[in-house]
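Q: Predict the assembly, please.
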Amino acid sequence: MGRQTRNRSESEIITAILNGDTELYHELIRPYERSVYVMAFSYMKNEADAEDVAQEAFVRAFRNLSTFRGESKFSTWLMSITINEARSRLRRQRPVRMESIDTPPDEDRPVSPALLRDWREIPSEALERQEIREMLQSAIDALPETYRQVFLLRDVEELNVNETAQLLNLSISLVKVRLHRARMMLQRRLTPELRLANRTAKRRWFQWS
Amino acid sequence: MVIECRHVWNYISDYLDGALSDEIRQTVQTHLEHCEICSAILDSTRNILILTADDRVFELPVGFSARLHTRLDDELQSRK
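A: Predicted assembly structure:
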């Protein structure tokens, strides 16, 4: 079945599901499991709740599949269901905290980057090290909520500015401002950390070889 | 046109996204050619964005996919 579906477009699969071939839903959502979970986690901040929200979002998307009109991408539609699910769950959990989620931090002061004279590239293979992965995760976790969501949609899920603005109900210019600030905050924090980790790794390598 | 480092930093995000007007882009580029600090900021930012976009950064909880598809099976069954 997998081989057969790979050649079908997403909209053909959706039509087939709506016509009764519901098993195909498994195939339809497989590429988005990670994206939905990561987005849910960015709101819920713990694995158990994030998993619940992700499952709920996929179930809800299935139940409402007939309302998907193909005006946006399926992935964007799925993401909006995930965000709604996460938000309503947070509202139920702690109604008083909603304000802090929606109130943006001070956006007037510029974020200064970490200053350095040269940058030695960290290759993607470095991500094999858990230490590096954790470094990146905690830097993203430490971003203010409103920045993290823009950052995840734009730079991790690779949605465009318009899609991100639409999903988060923000103006395009605000998306750009928050994205820029998020990127600068990450640069500021991660540049010295990664540099140090890279240096330590090299020293270790040198000793071994 | 000559601009200061601090102004270049404001443009880094749009520069990376290719969202600057030709004129500003040219000005930023000229600055980058002569300023090792701003070039290093740009390189490190670009590098960090490549790393954070990698699938390996966010791991799914063990068994996530299996549990999800079991839940979906229940849902699909109940709709039949």
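The mean pLDDT of chain B is 94. Chain B has one domain: 5-78.
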